[in-house]
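Researcher: Can you fold this with FE2/S2 (inorganic) cluster in place?
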Amino acid sequence: MEKAYEKILRKYEKEEGNVISLLQDLEKEFGFVPEDAVYWFSHRLNIPASNFFGVATFYSQFHLKPRGRHIITACVGTACHVRGAEPIVNRMKEHLSLREDEDTTKDMYFTMDNVACMGACSLAPVIKIDKKVYGNVAPDEVGDILDESRGLKAR
Ligand code: FES
């Protein structure tokens, strides 16, 4: 990992430490912002680690934990909530064997995210797996959708 940090560092030594861009580079390189990277760059660039963590926790584009290869986005906005988003999220967590406080499967295949609205309210409740959108989802369909995503089943 240190080689990748050095490569990013060379860029930011000249650019006077733009914290957001640096975090974007880390996110792009690793798929998340490793905690040790924050301390490494904090030390090298003489920027308090709290600056990095403050930005990383403020913007949803940054993740402080490793993420799965496929991202499930469940809409929990008003329209989706009213039309049953919660049972879908619960069913999904059951299928993926995720505890309440977990969002990534142990095999690192899926990470679950929630959003406030996907702009597709007429299809509520809506979920998305990577770029594929599923509308009017019923809790009973969740298992098949996940199997399809794993390439285990055609829907
Ligand atoms: S509230 Fe779910 S798509 Fe708008």
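Model: Folded with FE2/S2 (inorganic) cluster in place. Helices lie at 2-14, 19-30, 35-45, 49-58, 78-82, 85-95, 142-149.
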